[in-house]
Design goal:
- The complex is a heterodimer of chains A (about 350) and B (about 210).
- With about 350 residues, chain A is an alpha/beta fold.
- Chain A has one domain: TIM Barrel.
- Chain A has 15 helices and 9 strands.
- Helices cover about 60% and strands about 10% of the residues of chain B.
- In chain B, helix 8 links the parallel strand 4 and strand 5.
- In chain B, about 50% of the residues are buried.
- Chain B is built from 9 helices and 5 strands.
- In chain B, helix 1 packs parallel to helix 3 and helix 1 crosses helix 4.
- Chain B has about 210 residues and is α/β, with parallel strands linked by helices.
- Classes of the chains: A alpha/beta (about 350), B alpha/beta (about 210).
- The interface between A and B is medium-sized, with 28 and 22 residues.
Chain lengths: ~350, ~210
């Protein structure tokens, strides 16, 4: 088979077609900033730095894509939430000063314009730049906070967790709002040339199947459908132990779904069915950072058997800084030297 | 005891109003605070922990149960202080410097308080100096540290070094936890224990107390 570009390879696998070998799409944020030799504050504030770091990292290791994932605070920052900035780590939201700590504030706030000189626009410009620089060779990934995660960012995660019981109507209103923010942000990124939109909905792994089914899935589904309607694709990324909500996740219709390390990959495959493209889930700390090329290759062999045909190599979550380069190379080498298992 | 069962159920079901009301009634009926804690609260929180381990309860249920437990404790605590009764151990807990993630730490704090320990929660983004000051002032038996990011984990080592430099290290057992933390890392930095979950943390504190 001819050697595909990274973009062709990922597109083939997402469509269920044969590729020359397995694609590799690990999430890198601080790791990429370190490769470029910049502080993370520069990376998150300036899309040109982020693009430089992503292109350099992808080229250095042989990833099939570049991504504009950076931190969970872009949407919240543009809404006026109080953000804690750090010199060399991702910014964070101050929960004590959460935008909707007072529930009544929600009614008076509108979803912000994406292109308004803020942090969301910075990501959109990053996609345009990566599209230009990556050319046809690399897949370009945008990113949005999922409705539950953004709800947690704006309300405060501790408050939201109790709101499901204390005030379910407020949660519906909150997620209606965060959904609008995500739909608009995703649409702008698709228009800028993003091949896929990562939907990061980490808080969803904390709630269990009952709350996920009632409060999260319907809003995630509307976001997925909107992204598809706008010509985009979806990479669902729910960090943490999603074992009990896999069946729901599998019915969203996402083009690909990351599985984090606590979830046995064979269960992920059984619960989501043979057609769902799955990615990951080597443990980013205990295996990818602390393991060796040999143990990593062994883990990936086992994962491929469990994940089956429609599978993309990645770590369960972000590749942490200080991960030895030889370990990252071992992960990529596995993908580059293995073809997909034939569909059963 | 009817009231013990009612408080047990109220905590298990995350019903803070009921937990408060039942505790108030029990106090008025002359029930000893330590009886309520040991016969209702601790078994309820143990059951909450078990249900969490079994993936029947999740973070919302844990936080609601913790809130119900706290609503009972706010009535019991002043009575215990007034009568000079002490809980079996004092724990200082916090998320380390530079890390704002606190939901895991909050769950551990709730589980420890519900298990009958006195918990001093320093919050998130807690400096080594603040941990040292808390140990000096409050004289706990345990210090529990949480981190959710690999970049903030080194603050655990910094805090242990600060305790050593302040001459306080041998007075406390230091326990660590959080998603990127491993038992290997805990040993490397000289912690006394590591737990990968909230129930484990409670078990660790109980075991270390029993050994003391």
């Amino acid at each position: 088979m001819y050697a595909m570009t990274g973009r062709e390879r990922i597109l083939a696998v997402l469509a269920g077609h044969k590729a020359d070998h397995i694609p590799c799409m690990p999430i890198t944020m601080t790791f990429a900033a370190d490769i470029l030799g910049v502080k993370y504050l520069q990376y998150v504030r300036d899309h040109r730095v982020m693009a430089d770091a992503q292109v350099k990292t992808a080229a250095m290791f042989g990833f099939d894509y570049v991504s504009t994932i950076s931190d969970p605070t872009r949407e919240a920052a543009d809404l006026g939430a109080h953000i804690q900035w750090y010199e060399d780590r991702p910014p964070a939201i101050l929960e004590d000063e959460a935008l909707f700590a007072d529930k009544s504030v929600l009614a008076g706030v509108e979803a912000p314009d994406t292109i308004a000189g803020g942090r969301m626009e910075d990501r959109v410009r990053g996609i345009e730049l990566l599209r230009e620089r990556a050319g046809k060779g690399l897949f370009v990934e945008g990113w949005v906070e999922g409705p539950c995660a953004e709800g947690a960012d704006l309300r405060g995660i501790n408050r939201l967790m109790m709101d499901f019981s204390d005030d379910p109507a407020f949660v519906h209103d909150l997620f209606d709002f965060t959904l609008q923010v995500a739909i608009r942000f995703a649409a702008a990124q698709i228009q800028a040339g993003a091949d896929i939109i990562g939907v990061g909905d980490a808080a969803a792994s904390l709630v269990g199947p009952r709350i996920y089914k009632e409060f999260v899935w319907p809003w995630e589904k509307r976001l997925v459908d909107s992204i598809h309607a706008n010509g985009g694709r979806v990479r669902l990324h729910i960090c943490g132990n999603t074992r009990r909500i896999l069946d729901g996740m599998g019915t969203l219709g996402c083009d690909m779904m990351d599985i984090d390390y606590p979830v046995p990959m064979d269960q992920a495959r059984t619960q989501t069915g043979p057609q769902q493209t799955l990615a990951a889930n080597i443990d980013p700390v205990r295996e990818l950072r602390d393991g060796s090329p040999e143990t990593i290759a062994q883990s990936l062999e086992a994962l491929q058997q469990q994940a089956g045909a429609r599978w993309i190599v990645a770590a369960g979550c972000e590749v942490v800084r200080d991960t030895p380069h030889e370990n990252v190379r071992a992960m990529v080498e596995f993908a580059q030297t293995h073809a997909a298992i034939a569909m059963a | 005891m009817a009231q013990s069962k009612e408080l047990y159920e109220a905590i298990l079901n995350g019903d803070a109003k009921k937990a408060h009301a039942v505790t108030q009634a029990a106090i008025e009926a002359g029930t000893e605070p330590m009886t309520l804690i040991s016969e209702s609260m601790v078994p309820a929180m143990d059951e909450v922990g078990r249900l969490f381990e079994e993936e029947e309860y999740f973070v919302p249920e844990l936080l609601l149960a913790g809130r119900a437990m706290k609503s009972a404790m706010e009535l019991l605590r002043p009575l215990m202080v007034a009568s000079g009764q002490k809980l079996s151990a004092r724990v200082v807990i916090g998320t380390v410097k530079g890390d704002l993630h606190d939901i895991g730490k909050n769950i551990v704090a709730s589980m420890l308080e519900g298990s009958g320990f006195e918990v001093i929660d320093l919050g998130a983004d807690v400096s080594a100096e603040a941990f040292v000051a808390a140990v000096e002032e409050r004289k706990p038996q345990f210090v529990c540290m949480s981190a959710l990011l690999t970049v903030t984990m080194p603050a655990m080592k910094t805090t242990i070094e600060a305790l050593t430099n302040a001459g306080l290290r041998t007075r406390v057992k230091v326990l660590v936890g959080g998603a990127p933390v491993t038992s290997r890392y805990a040993k490397e930095i000289g912690a006394d224990g590591y737990s990968e979950n909230a129930s484990g943390a409670v078990g660790l504190v109980r075991n270390l107390l029993a050994e003391a």
